[in-house]
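Record minuted for everyone:
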Amino acid sequence: MAAHHAVAAIIELSRGLFIPLRVEASRCVTNNVDGVWMVADRSEPDDHVRVNAAGSVLVPTSSAPVGVDGHAMTTMLDDLLTTSGEASELRWLGWSEIRVDDTLAALPTALVPTGDEFILDDLDNRVRGLGIPARRRSDGVWVGRYDLGFWTPISVTVLREAHVSGISDADGHHTLLMLSIDVHWSVWWRDGSPGRAMLDAALHRLHDLGWHHNY
């Protein structure tokens, strides 16, 4: 399934770089009208589903998350696409977007603080010398956004091409997937920085999976 390929890409990209804390997917229903696939009403009350780090749907992220793993993501998407009562020969359930909009990001070794806080300047919100809690785990030291309304370090979105977004998600159907990674903190995008090296390594792993840049 295309959804599973999207999840595999997110997991590979995240390895050693970020931990997904919240994942949201959007479902769409597509009708076959005289042989032409057209996206139906996108405003259904259940056309969005979200899974948090504890694995519960539509529950706020816990204060001590362990991360959303690939199994939780695929289970969420499988459930989203197998809701009974709406799919038929001329009516497909599909997904249009998968978003990872809250993450913890791995600090490069060179930037790991000796104390419990990572100090940064939040230029977007005109705050300097801001202390962000450093979360120490067996797999590294991680940081995330310090309050709702502020940017998470890294976010990821996977989109399906609009005109095929409602067609069967099976591997036998052509589907164009577009993945975008938004790096909101300069720790990971500044050229020559150790954080940028971590990002570049993650992108190389995506290339190895068959993904290609499209600027």
Remarks:
- Residues 1-103+152-209 form one domain.
- The chain has a mean pLDDT of 77.
- Helices lie at 2-14, 70-81, 194-208.
